[in-house]
Amino acid sequence: xxxxxxxxxxxxxxxxxxxxxxxxxxxxxxxxxxxxxxxxxxxxxxxxxxxxxxxxxxxxxxxxxxxxxxxxxxxxxxxxxxxxxxxxxxxxxxxxxxxxxxxxxxxxxxxxxxxxxxxxxxxxxxxxxxxxxxxxxxxxxxxxxxxxxxxxxxxxxxxxxxxxxxxxxxxxxxxxxxxxxxxxxxxxxxxxxxxxxxx
Length: 199
Ligand SMILES: [Fe+2]
Ligand SMILES: [Fe+2]
Known about the structure:
It is a single chain. The mean pLDDT is 96. The radius of gyration is 19 Å and the shape is globular. The longest helix is centred in the first third of the chain and has 16 residues. α6 crosses α7. 51% of the residues lie in helices and 0% in strands. It is built from nine helices and no strands. By secondary structure, the protein is an all-alpha fold. The structure holds fe (ii) ion (FE2) (2 copies). The site of one fe (ii) ion has 4 residues, from loops.
């Protein structure tokens, strides 16, 4: 039977851990499909009070990125930038960042990780918050990319009449990104600033 002998990890044998390692490979390969299933499920989440679902917001943001000529790292990360909303609403940006971190350039992960603070520029003042908290990150090389991400793709994507592309149309790019070698230096390119494509 394809199960381990132990009930406590400390008692596992080499054979147990070889079996787990073998079974982990196809499981990890299924990550992209599980992400797609979660996004699909979020089509049923009503974003309380908003005119669009969580899925529609992600699709709309990613569609804008694609139509403006953004590269694959931007498009896939933009599709996923709010995937943590259902399970970690107060720190959903960091949750999404951890999902994409091994597979996209550092700049893109940083933008996903910090988009929550940068996004408050558009509404924080209505609650009496400091809408300029993004200035805490003024000296990051990725500051302007995050400003642009929020302005062009995130804050703009709550429109029920926008002609978004389908989730299926993003599946090949999402699968390609999650099939990359994790933490590949050639992908992560620490410190490199590409920015958003020029308008
Ligand atoms: Fe967000
Ligand atoms: Fe968002």
